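Would you kindly consider the sequence and fold I have copied below?
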Amino acid sequence: MPVVRFLNIALSHATAALLAASLVASCEPTSDSSSSVSTRSPATAADVGVERVVLQAYRAIGDRHLNEPDFRKMSLETYKGFAATDPLLSLQPGDRAFTLLRDGHQVVSRPTPADPSDGRAWGAMLAELFAASIDVSPVLQQAERGTLIRGAMGATTKQLDKNSRYADPDEAKDNRFQRDGGGGIGITVERTDDKRILIRAVQDGSPAFKGGVQVGDQIVAVEGESMIDKTLGDVVHKLRGSVGQPVTLTVLRGGNQELAIEMRRSRIIPTTVTYERKDNVALIHLTGFNSATTDSLTSALDRARSEIGRDLQGIILDMRSNRGGLLDQAQSVAEVFIGDGVIFSTRGRHPDSQRTYRSASRRTAELPVVALVNGNSASAAEIVAAALQDRGRAAVVGTTSYGKGTVQTVIRLPNEGELVLTWSRLLAPSGYTWNEQGVMPNICSAKVDDVTALAASSVDANKPLLQRWHAERNPSHDDIVSLRRICPPGEESPQRDVDIAARLLRDPALYAHAVRTGSIDQASAPR
């Protein structure tokens, strides 16, 4: 069973940009199986019934979910979702059996498993009830299999937690493309209010870059097929394909010049790291965590050292609105700055979820670091921020982060969809979990009126609050609400955050003081 662990926060569909090389809608991890490439043909996947999908999902939930599930309750909800299109169908629960009714008449009765946590047994029982339901329901017989599966799986994941979910085959394909890369041309596109498809970014070194595609070009056709009035998804699907396969992109430039650009698709991994020089400071924007992030970060640091040289004062690691990504990349990004010791830990019900992740880096960036976060910084971004803060490697500036401190496992299902399943909690090196709570910055930028007047006294004011934050182990909902009011999470990315970071890096004594307010005693730090 191909399985990948990842930290997932879905971007708003209203604001997310679709990449022709990839769909940036979630953050996903590398596979812990030998291969995540399916050998199942699309036709075979399309023929897979709801019975097989739910049976495999129930097995995974029983084995891996963070909390022990109650399949008796879950089975009733799963069935309701499955049979939602036929109001004549109902499932009557009894002490020892579930009875299927249609229009009030008994169809079949099946004994319930004795153990409410036995996913395999409950999944097998449901599979029989599904088959019997389809046999007697013309409505279900005419329904698309994907509709039945979405209904059943959507109802199932609602019984788990807010981060567990089902991805249908199309969404799962996009997720895998984002995770592993794939054949594309390397452009970011968006649809304007007047329904034009415009190119908003061209990835360096990509086929589009080499072919002369420019930001602002309007896509009018792909392979001779008009893209006028097509959805973003349609355009992206058309641009993707096998690596090495030719594709012709027709664009309108300047409103009147139509160009047909021929190129060959290459393996595209979305850009997640960009670097810009701010005087003698390296400002590095980290927008996500995919399989190329750590290598790209290392390259950006090398470029900063080359450009700025001995005058390089430090690094601003901007992770504002970074929704997260690959778990192993969160570890390796932290290792760029942390030479040894604990980075984070995970705790769950499955034995494999009980892990402590330590740095094994031989090459670390010793420069001062300021990490920027806001209320949309989540998952892998929070792993890095919490580790750098706890381990005394960075001052964190901005607002309280999103607060997603759980790890998900992604299970490939027989229909090529995916079950995104929460399986462990994340713990910072100091031992607290930021789930729901978030990572609190060393300096809450909203409380800084005058950046030029920032001093040790204003930094010290936050120290007892950070100590309280890191001391929490099982805060109640009211405690979490109270804590998050200290530095309310914000969705914006104000210039003030960058100005505060630059101010700290220009003043080594103030920077060191700020770092100490949020770090644990490094002499006793967990190794």
